[in-house]
Specification:
This protein is an all-alpha fold. It starts with 23 loop residues before the first helix and ends in a 42-residue tail after the last helix. 64% of the residues lie in helices and 0% in strands.
């Protein structure tokens, strides 16, 4: 009896279209490993487009757009996607970016003044705590501001309102993202001025990737998913349900439909 090593005439079970979803911890490092060099390249492109500094906002929006595609495991031609998002979201992100640069500069000045001062009166210490508390809230709002700009069609006012509410609705996710961001920022500050060169290649895209991976599910839960549910539709960003009988590669015999790009949902303002 002849044994066929490769039998092309008989049908097998095929490959499952979508296997069981991995735990977020393992999925994070799996995507991070696959996109490691792409993230370094993305960081360099971001730094390039941040010259001059006034383009910080559009560059941040463009990087967020690319990283969001990475986390959703969607096809992405890095530079083309970055440049397209940079132009498309320029107006809203430019306004936000100018405010960001002013806030960052103010935070650095106050931070230096606090640690350089020899003695801090009690009332000033309380003010400093309130200032840094407000700074933490603003930072967590930015976990959502730029991703709302690139993923949704909303006014700046609605984006800021949603971002403020998501700070409190996604407490666990925000705390984790805050810890990751502060840890990376602390490492950068500790190794200045040597870390200034590293910033060209690594940390900004890493921070963005970790933040979007952790916090974008909150945007999906409270904004994107309800938008589609109100219309009786299913969010196309979500993974499809597992169907063991469905094969990944099926010959449709020319019956397949033309694939169209999914437009950005208009989203909703959280009430």
């Amino acid at each position: 009896m002849a044994i066929k090593l490769f039998d092309y005439n008989s049908a097998g079970k095929g490959v499952a279209k979508h296997g069981p979803q991995k735990k977020p911890f393992f999925k994070f490092f799996e995507i991070f490993g696959r996109k490691f060099w792409k993230l370094i390249e993305l960081n360099m492109i971001f730094v390039l487009f941040c010259i001059p500094v006034v383009t910080f906002g559009p560059a941040m929006a463009a990087m967020t757009h690319v990283v969001r595609k990475f986390t959703l495991e969607q096809p992405c031609f890095l530079f083309e996607e970055f440049y397209t998002a940079f132009k498309k979201n320029f107006k809203q992100s430019f306004l936000i970016g100018i405010v960001d640069v002013i806030c960052i500069a103010s935070l650095i000045i106050v931070f230096n003044a606090y640690f350089i001062a020899q003695s801090i009166p009690t009332e000033n210490f309380v003010m400093m705590c309130l200032f840094f508390g407000a700074g933490a809230i603003v930072l967590m709002m930015h976990f959502y501001i730029y991703v709302e700009i690139v993923a949704l069609n909303l006014s700046v006012k609605s984006i800021l309102k949603n971002a403020m509410l998501l700070v409190f609705l996604g407490v666990k996710n925000n705390f984790l993202a805050l810890v990751i961001n502060l840890a990376l920022i602390t490492v950068i500050v500790m190794f200045l001025p040597f870390s200034a060169l590293i910033m060209i290649f690594i940390p900004l895209s890493w921070m963005c990737f970790a933040t979007i991976f952790v916090c974008y599910p909150v945007v999906q839960k409270y904004i994107v998913n309800p938008y589609y549910e109100e219309r009786g539709e299913r969010n196309p960003e979500l993974p499809e349900e597992v169907d063991g009988s469905e094969a990944l590669f099926v010959d449709r015999g020319g019956t397949e439909e033309v694939v169209k790009s999914v437009p950005k949902p208009h989203g909703k303002v959280i009430k």
